[in-house]
Amino acid sequence: MEKILIVYYSRTGTARQAAEELAAQSGWPLAEVGDQASRAGLLGDARCVLDILLQRHVGYRYAGPALDDCQRL
User: What is d(CA 20, CA 22) in angstroms, rounded to the nearest whole number?
Assistant: First the structure.
């Protein structure tokens, strides 16, 4: 049987809400990719713009089950 994992990134919470709804309907597990430093609010918006303009590489974190057992689409 195939194992499908829903992996999402959500800075504002909209994608998180959609992923949680999909997981509730499908029964598939969730995994979140997020920023190591918060990007919430106006300062987070400014940080996003500066990261793009200055071509900075930012750190991310993964919270979820191991990816080894999941199907890749």
Answer: 5
Digit-by-digit pLDDT tens for the chain (73 residues) are 468 899 999 988 899 999 999 999 999 999 999 999 888 889 989 999 999 999 999 999 999 998 887 877 6
7, 13, 47, 6: CA torsion to nearest 10: 0
Strands 30-35 and 60-63: antiparallel
Q: How many other C-beta atoms are found inside a 10 Å radius of the C-beta of residue 19?
A: 19
Distances (CA, A) of 56 to 37, 40, 42, 50, 51: 13, 18, 19, 8, 5
Distance CA 71, CA 30 (A): 14
